[in-house]
Amino acid sequence: MSKITIAIDGFSSTGKSTIAKQLAKTLAYSYVDSGAMYRAVTLYAMNHNYISESEFKPELLINDLDKINLKFIFNSSVGYGEIYLNDVNVEHEIRTLAVSKLVSKVAEISEVRKKLVEQQQLMGKNKGVIMDGRDIGTVVFPNAELKLFMNASAEKRAIRRYNELTKRGDKVSFDEILKNVEYRDHIDSTREDSPLVKAEDAIEIDNSNLGLEEQFYKIHQMVQEKLTSL
Ligand code: DC
């Protein structure tokens, strides 16, 4: 059976990655978390003191772009590829609130986007890939056979994020998380380069009141329909 490209875009913490990972496993496709790449570049900038909450020196980060090597290595115990920044596994470190607070600033930089989009297109060149992010259906794979756009209320998304972070032991407050979700929504959807917008041919799914199983069933059916129509 021929393979397709599946693009999943949407606001932060809409459960894109959970659905994408589950789909990838079921279809034996590869999963790419494009947000992890923007987070890893942000971590690099933080580690080099190029960015903090009070200042950002984008030109220093742009100068260093050739020194930033990103790759995903499949970890069979979790069932997906984990991200490595210059050969160090940073899968856990990139999920902190400190990175979430700064990543939208880094994702605004066109030079960063250009580099990451090229790598993402390369990873998807043989199809059989599910990629989630903000500009996958609009910029990275405008010809993807199936495009989904996920949404949910900011409160629901903040609750999910809060539960995720506290479960792994991070000390965060709900208000802080909600503010970060709203702040990122604003920057991600108003930036000049590749803002978060629903592609015209994307199917919108609001999962504020949709369980995971129900959602997966619905999306899996869409994939099957697409595959049989080819
Ligand atoms: O999906 P995430 O929340 O881990 O993404 C982190 C940030 O990276 C998000 O706030 C915006 C940015 N991003 C982007 O600009 N383009 C993508 N394709 C993926 C993420």
Compose a concise summary of this entry.
By secondary structure, this protein is an alpha/beta fold. Helices cover 48% and strands 17% of the residues.
Describe the structure in your own words.
- With 230 residues, the protein is α/β, with parallel strands linked by helices.
- It has one domain (5-217): Rossmann fold (3-Layer(aba) Sandwich).
- The chain is 48% helix and 17% strand.
- The chain is built from 9 helices and 8 strands.
- A 5-stranded parallel sheet has the order 2-6-1-7-8. The chain has a 3-stranded antiparallel sheet with strand order 3-4-5, with helices on one face.
- β3 and β4 (80-85) form a beta hairpin.
- The longest helix is centred in the C-terminal third of the chain and has 18 residues, at 212-229.
- It is globular and about 50 Å long.
- 2'-deoxycytidine-5'-monophosphate (DC) binds at residues 12, 34-35, 38-39, 103-104, 107, 133-136, 184, 188.
